[in-house]
Design goal:
This protein has 105 residues and is α+β, with helices and mostly antiparallel strands. 28% of the residues lie in helices and 17% in strands. The chain has one domain (10-103): 2-Layer Sandwich (Alpha-Beta Plaits), CATH 3.30.70. The chain has a two-stranded antiparallel ribbon with strand order 1-4. Strands 2-3 form a two-stranded antiparallel sheet. The radius of gyration is 15 Å and the shape is globular.
Amino acid sequence: MGNDDPTAGAVSRRSTLRVMGLCAGLAALGMAPKRKPEAKKPGDGEEYWLDPDECIECDACVDECPTSALKREKKIYVIDQAKCTQCGDCLKVCPVDCIKIRKKK
């Protein structure tokens, strides 16, 4: 039997619409994001890192993360490295490429 909850998946749809609107705005400014067919995976001694100076706070990565490793702390988003499985889903949806690979601290 199907899910009778009309709000099921609402966060995902809302996030998708927010990112679509953002991408349309960036395209109008000539700054359309590149398509990312395959996310680069961190190597040994590396990890994903979200650059707060480039982040536009669209929540796309937070909504996409299957392990809830991304969260907002004060005014920035951080990646909980203990929860991150390095799947690359956050990289694929980030419209401004603010998620980077860096050496582990």
